[in-house]
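Thread title: Can someone regenerate the structure for this chain?

I was given the following input by a collaborator and told the matching structure tokens would be attached. They weren't. Posting the sequence so someone can regenerate them.
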Amino acid sequence: MTPQYDTLHMGRSSIDLYANDVGAPFEQIRSFAAYVGGSPLNISVGARRLGLTTALLTAVGEDPVGDFILHFLRGEGVDTRYIPRKPGRRSSAVVLGIEPPDKFPLVYYRDNCADIELTIDDVLASPVTDCRVFQFAGTNLSRDPSRSATLFAAEQARQAGAKVVIDLDFRPDQWHDRRAFGVNVRAAVRLVDIVIGTEDEINAAMLADVSQVQLTHSQVSDARVQGDTTAAVARLRQLGPQVVVEKRGAQGARLHLPDGVQDVPGFPVEVYNILGAGDAFGAGFLYGYVQGWDWYACARLGNACGAIVVTRHGCANFMPTLPEVEAFVAPYGGL
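Best answer:
Regenerated them for you:
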């Protein structure tokens, strides 16, 4: 029996306030544009715009911000029937500055947030056993009950025959100890088929491995995580994932596959705002994966989606459609 949904995405959602004063230092910003965000939400919207049937498992508060998020998702055609409202909890928010080419400060407002309160009962009420791909974010694992609910969802999806995908989504300030990110990711990836992350995220996922126990707390508190990414990927794949997809920004993507490593070049664009480009990549990659494309083609579409979004002001609100992507890649030989 064909699953009802191509993809189900689980994790954080928010209202995202993007600075309208591009290039201004954060303290000099005068106004913001209101969009929506959160890695799983962004990917669900991007995949839907490309043509997949998507559903989102997040949670919002009984507040106007929750209304704002749900209104946008319904307008996009993402199924919101499985998004509970959590009494006493607030929909989260993110405030973002834009100082190209390389400074994009962001501040999270996630105290008492609704989506980290997703429970096993919320998973049972969702189509986790009725999707082709179940995708979740690493931030889900930062606290319970979301941590347990996410692991349960991955178990249920895999038992039902779905492919399980994690976007590592390492947000250091969402963890009580940044080393805990690695501990929890390594537990979760035993249930995962595909890992998607940047070089920093992959290294952070393996940071608390035996070879790294001598690191001091100040060293693991650095925003950038250095390490031997090739070795980290090898150890990560030994835990169970078939494929590790390394997002490399302007350089494109590096695919760590069972039969070797494959580089997929990016597309040359002028960077306007990098925030959310990785989620656009995830949406494109999953679209190709669901369509049965080869790994290279999946990553090429992901690269194209990411390249388009870095030229735009926001993320979910600016995800490309498939015709837009096809027009963008035409001068480069198409998909």
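The two ends are 30 Å apart (CA to CA).
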